[in-house]
Amino acid sequence: MQKPTNTVQLHLETTPSLGIAPGALVNRDSAKRNIWCPKPEIEFDSWCNPNNPKLITYKEISKAMNVLREHFPVTPLLRSRCCVQFGLEVNYKLEIFHRTGSFNERGALYTLLMLKENQRKFGVITASTGSWAMALAYYGHKLDIPVTTVLPLYTLINVVEMCKGYGATVILNGKSLAEAKNQAFIVRAESGATYLNSYDHPYAIAAAGSIGVEIMEQLPQTDAILIPVGGGGLLAGISTAVKHIKPEVLIYGIEPEKCCGFYKAMKNEHPYHIIAGRSIAGSLAISTPGHNAFHTAKPSINKMVLVNDDWISRAVLHLTEEERFVADGAGATSLSALFGLPNILPELRGKTVVCVISGGNIDTDTLPRCIERAKAVEGRIIKMTVTLPADETTEQLKIFSTIANLGCNVRQYYTEHAWLTENDFYTIYLTLTCETRDIKHACTLKRVMERLFPNMCHFLEEPFSPIPICSCFAKKLP
Fold it and tell me: What is the pTM of this model?
């Protein structure tokens, strides 16, 4: 019997389609997540919620202070040897003598002590450029808490090895701290570890506040405190403590202009992501300031000052050469603002000022480059090239004698013949690096050399500018 094909076809044409089979739909490129089921935010940290920032109070700082007193001696507060040079009473709060070289030990230890038992079991994870990672690894080892640190790819080898030496698991990932942080949250989702933010965790901010309490105990007559700023945790903690004890103390945040996220947050009334540049003050290169830190610190800040790397280099040199201790770029950032006196911060003249030296973790490759750069900026190292006839050796002797008679030192020199493209077989170039006392001495050397050897000397002009660095480097909030 023949099937009623026409009837079947009519039925299929009039019945509404049930759609594509689920199995086929999964394999199609058009299959997408429904908009009502959003992708969870991988970098969510309940301790640092931008939609619900936590304001740190003096009561919490006092609690942290009581705990930390049992583990840390009070760090030194020393008067500068160069108060006359600055025209004010400069003092240094030194956080460089901790076991891992920075103030981060306060926050690392206190935060680990406050963990619950189940959190200790699964361990902690963090992203850092160095100092916080070392502090967390060190105290994690002492408290028998597993620590994982995610460090950017450019992290110094000695930092990596120190973290490993303290027993931490080290992951190198990302070209910046922001990328390392993203990787840390990915690892956290798999391991169940607790993420600890170095500059925005409430316990870390409260622990940083203990520095402010110590300053007011050691130097009650303090008029102003200059604090390095990156993510803002140190600034938030110290400012909250100090303003509670003595509200009239001026609080200045000092931040590198290459990574001025906190300054921009203050200017725009809220933290937001920026592209942080590489700076000598590497640990201050934070792309997004902490929300807890920002909202805690904002009411207490009197002024923000931006400094560039040349000023920070000068501060590192000054501390090494004049004060006889070594600080890293981030640690020296607070002092760097004083090199702008009296063009900026004229209100500090004659005041009692404390510069927080937050760390001393500068590596042996960066330190000499930093010192060399600072001397060049100050006109104490100059470089020149003198064009000479190849067969006139007496001219070379005359050059060296002139430099010696002016009281300058020749640190390095070399000669090279003119390149082939110059078509001058009988010309040599004598390049010298000379050390002078100051910018005035350098200008004297330049003037004499150009007079004795006219049209033969070429100087690197940077040290001979009346203001070695652009005078607009410092900015203040309106």
Answer: 0.85
